[in-house]
Amino acid sequence: MGQKGWKFQGEQGEFRLEQPEHNSYLYFPLVNEAGMMSAVTPNLHGEITSGHNTFLMEPVSAESLHNSKASRNFWVFIEGYGAWSVSGNSARQNAARFTGEEERSAVEAGFLWHAVTRENEKAGLKARTVSFVPVTDDKIELMRVTLTNTGNAPLKLTPTAAIPLYGRSADDLRDHRHVTSLLHRIFTSEYGIEVQPALSFDERGHRVNKVTYGVFGAEAGGTAPAGFFPVTEDFIGEGGALDWPEAVVANREPDAQAGTAVEGYEAVGALRFAPVELAPGKSVSYVVAMVISGDRIDVGRYAADYLAAGRFDALLEQNRAYWRDKLDTVRFSSGDGEQDLWMKWVTLQPILRRLYGNSFLPYHDYGRGGRGWRDLWQDCLALMVMEPAEVRHLLLNNYAGVRMDGSNATIIGAGPGEFVADRNNIPRVWMDHGAWPLMTTLLYLHQSGDLDLLFQPQSYFRDVFVKRCRERDASWTPEQGNKLLTADGQIYEGTILEHILLQNIVPFFNVGEHGNIKLEGADWNDGLDLAPERGESVAFTAFYASNLMELSELLLELQKRTGKDSLDIAEEMALLLDTLGKPISYDSIQEKRSLLDRYYDAVTPRVSGKKLLLDIRKVAEDLKRKADWAVAHLRGSEWIQSKEGYAWFNGYYNNDGERVEGDHPDGVRMTLTGQVFAIMGGVATDEQTEKISQAVNRYLKDERIGYRLNSRFGGIQQNLGRAFGFAFGHKENGAMFSHMTVMYANALYKRGFVQEGFEVLDSIYRLSADFENSRIYPGVPEYINERGRGMYTYLTGSASWLLLTQLTEVYGVKGRFGDLRLEPKLVQAQFDGSGEAAVETLFAGRMLRVVYRNPQAAEHGQYRVDSVSLNGQSVDCQNDGAGCLIGRSLIEALPADGVHELIVTLGRNIS
């Protein structure tokens, strides 16, 4: 795939794209753990930031990438030719594409570096510009420009780096753009230009500012610039522009030398280097550093660490090694080498999401940074595979965001476990939020066997909102802090297990008039936000039902494995375990709501702090009764059929209390979300799952863009959600929304519908890698729009799900309460020419290479695990037909270093 666009080079996922400027909206991420977040395009456009209030370059949206003239430009005045941009971002070069004088150019990129090559044949000059963010503790981006004389005569060149210094909050882009430039204090030093605004004007108020932004540079041997143009209007000249600046075009002498100070103007990091004469075949290089610092910049240190001779190459190699080691924790080897390399980019995406959050890339031009509640848990799915050492700490801290009413904080702080009250005091509850933590925690328990996590104490989140944000508590003040207190003023803590129980039991009682859980502010689909009174999410009622069943089984497993016969919970929670005291009728909506109201009153404004010791088996039985009721209700009341004879689950009720899906005058209405959790959690029977698959293929599958999130509803649906205001086939209204499509595949694999699951995953890959239509670099986008273009690249939770599905379902490498379970669901086409497929992954702190051998070329369903060897020695494993179990102790006994090989031979099923 990708042959008409990018092409992979080598075995490390590096790729090359010729004439990248023929494609709009392309950008590439550059980032480090220190907090530098950049995006770079083929013409070196993009942005550089460390947060919403600290942009070095101007904040950009996707449209800015081809409409704005600002970029990381590097100019060369060529004697006898004139001004030339190494990025192609000049008025002359932009016009050349349409006058038959287009230059040859290419982008090459790898983990995580970006290079642009451009050649001016007429002038006889080639430039290669390499960009990356070093993996150091500094917020810095580096760029090296190498100029090579490709002609037959010497060239006289005058180079000028020119990076506009925006230097303030994204809020100032339109609001007081000029006024905030009056705050700028601009300084020049030996190696460059820095801007330290005197104040910051943003939502935090008018504060004294310390943050400083700088552009510094040197010829590759360490020679400092010859001078500077620090003020934008002077650099471009009257009537000039950043894509044709007078200072370069007229080859003017520098305006300033080291030691100059200027106040109150828009700044540009324009560094003039000394003229150079370049002989044929010879090259010269320049290094430019873009820096964000907490105070005035120690220019001497930065020059020594980043601009000195040899430092760029050393830092670039360090960067490559860092990302290579990070990504080599998971490697797939199948019959499709191109897809295996593509999966390396998918593997990177969850890490990018952890670092960027949901902002700071051109398509992610919303929000102010950070992640939402749902993101915390779904990103952990991949981190368990990629960065397992941190996961326990993250999980434990994340539970501090749970409220005692079963809802949770919606604003996530920068540090682990940091939650704050809603920024704008707007109460909103996403009804699905309570469902995700159990799924993530179960994966951790199975991967690690660490059941002790469930009994760790943790506090609860508290703010002004109570009773699932239906009311405000007038007695609460921010000075009390954001932790739930007991009646005697102490911070209340409950076990992680208590938190999980609370999140899943409360929604069971929070039902609408049809007996399904209320939609509230929205569910997973944020666009379903206009049905808070009478809306119901049948889709997530299925998710919560399966969670209750999982919890019931988990409690029994806990008793078996730990010998614990009881568990302690807050005494108020006993109300929710009604079958242990005064059972209510689950068929009665009023009884459910009344019980929940009594619980809300019991925990508002504080809890007693007293605990009850309950029989673990009786609690498990209570949860099972709730789950059984919900499953029977869904199968009996929400299974629908179209006039054409196709059947599936209704997913929603709107704010008028009307069933959303089924036959309609505007056409059949169906949602993919409504099917996924019913299949995944076992609510749908095998027979129903087969019928759902047929209905999805009939109403949602589109050969051009894949599996749509929903069919065409018609109209804007003000009684359901804003999503239907989007044009059909875009974003949450009928696009191929990767997240739910991957989850659909995952659900099919879980239920043994392997060929159907494979077709779904294969469609996502082929759509994403079809560059002629998707126009994206390798990786999975948030969605595919009506034209087949990949949208919102890099920062999507679907990457976590895709990685997890490939590893645990397709390759079948998963945990079972700490032991290793191997249950491959590979189709015959996924084995290579020698009948092998393999994956390298971390398990129990050991790097394993699991190799499946399929000597008889059997299709899935025709093979079983025949034998297993570990490092050449036969292993006894508990074989249950579908797969086999290997004890954790066997894995932990292996040396911690190196890669250990598990050979799994597959034989034909004996019918």
Automatic annotation (TrEMBL):
Q: Which UniProt keywords apply?
A: Glycosyltransferase, Transferase
Per UniProt, residues of the Glycosyl hydrolase 94 catalytic domain are 644-808
Query: Which top class of enzyme applies to this chain?
Result: transferase
| Any one GO MF annotation of this record | carbohydrate binding
Matching entries from Pfam families are given as: GH94_b-supersand, Glyco_hydro_94
Q: Which residues form the Glycosyl hydrolase 94 supersandwich domain?
A: 105-306
InterPro entries in the cross-refs: 6-hairpin_glycosidase_sf, 6hp_glycosidase-like_sf, Gal_mutarotase_sf_dom, GH65_N, GH94_catalytic, GH94_Enzymes, Glyco_hydrolase_94_b-supersand
Instruction: Tell me which EC number(s) this protein carries.
Output: 2.4.1.31
Q: Which residues bind alpha-D-glucose 1-phosphate?
A: 353, 374, 524, 526, 732, 796-797
Q: A GO BP term, please?
A: carbohydrate metabolic process
- Source organism's superkingdom? Bacteria
Q: Does the keyword RNA-binding apply?
A: no
Q: What is this protein called?
A: Laminaribiose phosphorylase
Q: Give the species this sequence originates from.
A: Paenibacillus sp. YM1
Classification of source organism:
Bacteria, Bacillati, Bacillota, Bacilli, Bacillales
